[in-house]
Known about the structure:
Arc Repressor Mutant, subunit A, seven-stranded mixed β-sheet, alpha+beta, 275 residues, 8 helices
Amino acid sequence: MSTKNSVLALLEKSRDSYLSGEEIAGALGVSRSAVWKAVGSLKTDGYEISAVKNRGYTLSIDSNILSIEGILPYLKTRDASNDIRVYEELESTNKTAKKLAVSGSGHGTVVIADCQTAGKGHRGKSFYSPPALGLYMSAIINPSLYSLPTIIDITRLSAAVTAKSITDVCGITPAIKPINDLFINDKKVCGILTEAVSDLESGAVDWAVVGIGVNVGGYGFSAELKNIATSLFFGSPKKNIRNRLAAEIINNLLYSTEPAFIQNMLSLYESLLIR
């Protein structure tokens, strides 16, 4: 890990509190000059870092940049960070995740993008994916770990997990429109696209890629979308919501495979359905 990323990891772990340059340098085994340069580079990247004499550096609680370092403090298992890839821009997180799956990446691999240029929705529809306002992520999962044989089952689980994660992090409970859309006040706030590779002889799903797109913040939608789409919050997301929400979805979808939890999620799915 570079000095810049190491400094960012420390600042993310201590959000809204101060770390002195001496503390950071000591923890990383680098010079204070290296810390100063790393902080300057992070500021250039857009991170909101304050420097106060005799106190040190602090990363604003509202800093809104997706990163592995920003997700890591909220993960149940730190080992998961080795399987997370965060990009500034992708054509489609599902497309990238499928390429990784074909090349051998396994269960728990997660692809996240700040924006998508060709986000994919259900039945070939596009998914509006502007920078800094949404959470666009795809995960490779092994269905056998959940004892869920069909794509529909996997999609139901993913929808319930995403709804629960939104509730736990944001305090907002969306409804579910069968089988793969989450709604707030009769408008779509999240879409889920599940794609899979099956064994031709048995029909069993070998692996699945679950794509999740959440409109976290927004400043209003286009005339085409304003009557059908909404976001969790108005304006730019605050309080590190995107990193926290990404971590919570990863925790629940990839690292909570106990049968009782799966059954609870499928029951939650039924209770949130728009009928």
